[in-house]
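Session log. Operator J.P. requested a structure for one protein chain; no other inputs attached. Running the standard single-chain path with token output.
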Amino acid sequence: MLGQRLQQKLLQKLSPQQILLMKLLQIPTVALDQRIKQELEENPALEDTSDNSDNTADDLSNEYENEPTDDNSRDTTDFDFNDYLDEDDVDSYKLKANNESSDDEHKEIPYASETSFQELLTDQLSMLGLNEKQLIIAINIIGNLDDSGYLMREISAMVDDFAFSQNIETSDEEILEVLKIIQELDPPGIAARNLQECLLIQLRRTEEQTPAIKLAYRILEIQFERFTKKHYDKILEKLNISETQLKSAINEILKLNPKPGNSVGTSSKLNHYIIPDFIIYNNNGNLELTLNSRNAPDLRVSQSYAEMLQGYAEAKIKSEQQKDAVMFIKQKIDSARWFIDAIKQRQNTMYVSMEGIMNYQRDFFLTGDFSRLKPMILKDIADRVSLDISTVSRVANSKYVETQFGTFLLKEFFSKSMENDSGEDVSTREIKNLVKEFIENENKTKPLNDDELTELLLKRGFKIARRTVAKYREGMDIRVARLRKEIK
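Structure written below.
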């Protein structure tokens, strides 16, 4: 049965400009440069003032200058040209950070140019005298290596690959034969199918086969699982060796490279460098904040596009096709202006948010002492700078600040509070640092378990559950006590 009813809803819709700002706000400076380049490629009305060429706009202008006009055409334009021909807005607006000076040091992002281990292995194949079929198999194996240098694809699956994709009939034995050849190439340990095989290959290729190396090979070959779990007592009993012999063998194993592919370079990407988004200077006790915008180019709306609008506005006779072109130009100019404004708003929002964090954690930025960090959550900064919590969250996401004490993720400064025996609120970051300190100073032959760490924290005035201590330890990527155990 059909019926009608009246319903009232309260909806919040974001404008395209707001969505653009939110997306720009959450990316770090190192990614902003690529985002600006992408926008420059997609929008011809956006111009980098360091590049004076604007052939696209000139070609478009010439196309419509040569077009015959229609004397009977009527001007049906529904926007004001004055909104697009303002001299201050179009001709001279440039994106500038408001905290730069002429004597600032400008540096480019360093990029590493390297040869990947796949290329290195392929070069070595030419010296092995392989036949055509073996060469095809070898290249396929190298192409299936991951960034760490491991062959993660099953041999049987590779046999199927050759049969279906290249119409080559082969067998597991043929592929294994070529795989063994590749495993003799440099770097040692390359093309292994698991960590155990990788380490064994490196030990096998060691020139001087000392007793320690032979014992290390034996341990990895027949006691690998117990070794990874650090069940040293069982290894001593099973192999009937002394602790001194075991320690010598372990020292040889620790010299090996578990990721041989990383020792040469990267297969698909350049090395990563941390580019700070903010820089804080300590000027005789006065903290000074600057926003790193050295890699953002000077942007403006294209002068050629503005002149095309000017010419259309002054023309007495306008064709329909010219009107379509002008609407296209209007759309692109709008998009360029929105992008420039979003970049400017991004800088202002980031600066205000970071300034709030800097003032809130002033004691830390002056001393570098993590014990001086105050408990701080997103709401504390949002209230201080009059921004939404989600906005502060986007600023803190994946952003770095450079100080005289090092470069830190903004997220490191946010932590909940916990009350000690004296009734004082302390940051959970301070508790994590205590856990880390206890573990660094522990007896490595008898490392502290989570219960013992809990007892030590209790003596310092922090009553914390064991599961919370375990959570903090895991969050700092510290292994359990059993896996931290070492031989005397």
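Operator note: Residues 117-263 form one domain.
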